[in-house]
Amino acid sequence: MNRGRRLASILVAASLGLGSLVGCQSETGKAAFIGDTTITEDRVSQVFDDAVAKTPKQEPGPEEPGPEASGSPAPAAELPVTRQEVVDLLVSLELARRVVKEKNMPPAKEPTEPAEIAQALAVAGDSEYVKLWAEWLDLQTVITENTPRATLTDEGIMTVYRALAEAGAIQPGLPVEQVREQFGAAIFAEAAILVSTSLGAEAETTKTKVNPKYDPISAPMAVGTQQGPVFYNLPYISSDMVTDVSL
After folding, report:
1. pLDDT tens by residue, 3-35
2. Closest CA to 94 of 50, 40, 159, 148
3. CA neighbours closer than 13 Å in the CB half-sphere of residue 193
């Protein structure tokens, strides 16, 4: 898939193990709690259903006969987003908003236009899902630019590596020395850590909890490659996987 320019330039991660909602009647219909903010299942459905409804239809190529011509039943359409991805986005977005507000960080200098990333996400630019993604990218940038740098420990860099390997973006089973060599300066991974630790700390402060069916929560991530951006998810990374470096 041809990914968007803005998405190609950003890699951000997040997620610590979060508490799960207790399976009681009062939690019915709840997807997550972030402090005093509740993300309901209805809210998840609203974003998800809108994204599915606004997925551009893909026509068969010139050498690809349609199901009528081939005599085969039409395959089920692959959805561009899952409910899990919607919850991941909504939780990470709420945590990021709180970090930026509490630390009085400035707004993004060049806000992302939804139209710029719509093709990459395979959803129409006027969908709420794409608009939320645009805001998420801006918040990631703001946090990265206004947080002291951090250097990945071996465990931290291997956590990023394992997530990439799971997504099929890199060869699995490599030792840390070879991973560091392939990552080079690992600026993309450092950016991920800057946001990750901020969101992780906020999740702990707000005692964030998620419905067990959405656990574990991860934050959406993208890293640029020669073949285009790779999208994957990384569990929130704890602060013991980084070493602070003064600006």
Report:
1. 444 454 444 433 344 565 544 334 679 999 999
2. 40
3. 27
User: Tokens standing for 136?
Assistant: 């998420």
Query: Considering the entire predicted model, what is its pTM?
Result: 0.80
If you average pLDDT over residues 64-92, what whole number do you get? Answer: 70
Burial 109-131 (b: 16+ CB within 10 A, else e): eeebebebbbbbbbbbbebbbbb
Which structure tokens are listed for 154?
A: 């071996």
SS3 breakdown of the chain: % helix, strand, coil, rounded to 5?
45, 15, 40
234: nearest Cα among 159, 180, 151, 129: 159
Q: Taking the alpha carbons of 143, 149, 152, 157 in that order, is the dihedral positive or negative?
A: positive
Structure token pair of residue 151 = 């250097």
